Amino acid sequence: MDGQPETTTSPGAARPAQGGPARPQVGFHHRDAVRLLYILALGSEEAVHDGRIFKGEKRAMAIDFLVRYPDYLADELLTRFEAEGDPAALEAASDIFDADEPDLRTVAMVRWRRGAFQNIEMPLSILAAHGLVRPLKQTAGQRRHDFMVLPAAFSFIERIEREQPSLRWYRSRVELVMTLAGFRSGSDLKGDQYLHPEYRDARHGTEIPSIKERVLARLQSLRGR
């Protein structure tokens, strides 16, 4: 299993479908599996004897959204810069636009009932088949879906980065997103995303639109101060 960082706008994005979001194209399942693996591995906690735990499918979706939408991520970084005066946040947002990431690396998600949606069943089954991730059984009354990230996942990531150095982009990007997301709940993270009218008001079953121009104007204004 391998995959390349996203290099075209909205490849494999789900399309509107009656009764629910459509599944992404089959050719992108392995790419989605690689991205999901980095999110689950680098966002996991609570080391146990047979791996680490990633808490919450909704949290995974919220982190995935920021990986897939560089313009929304840049906006979050600018908010941190304005709130905390963190120059690293401004620099990271600048790097996103200097590399044309909103045009080159966006992988669109569909707006559905609870926000940005991606059916992770196929990517997750790929990871499970390779012995990298295992969904945890829910206990009585538990509504959150957690995942066990097995030790083989971390050695697998190291191997694919040696074999395909371009995949290190996933590591750097998820690590950047985690500086904002930390171990906040999925509901909390999605709450931030609903603050964007483009996200909040997108019609169900359609792709969430870019906010590139608005964020770029904000960046230029902050750079000019």
UniProtKB/TrEMBL annotation:
Residues 11-25 have a biased composition (Low complexity). Residues 1-10 have a biased composition (Polar residues). Residues 1-25 are annotated as: Disordered. This is Uncharacterized protein. It comes from Methylobacterium nonmethylotrophicum.
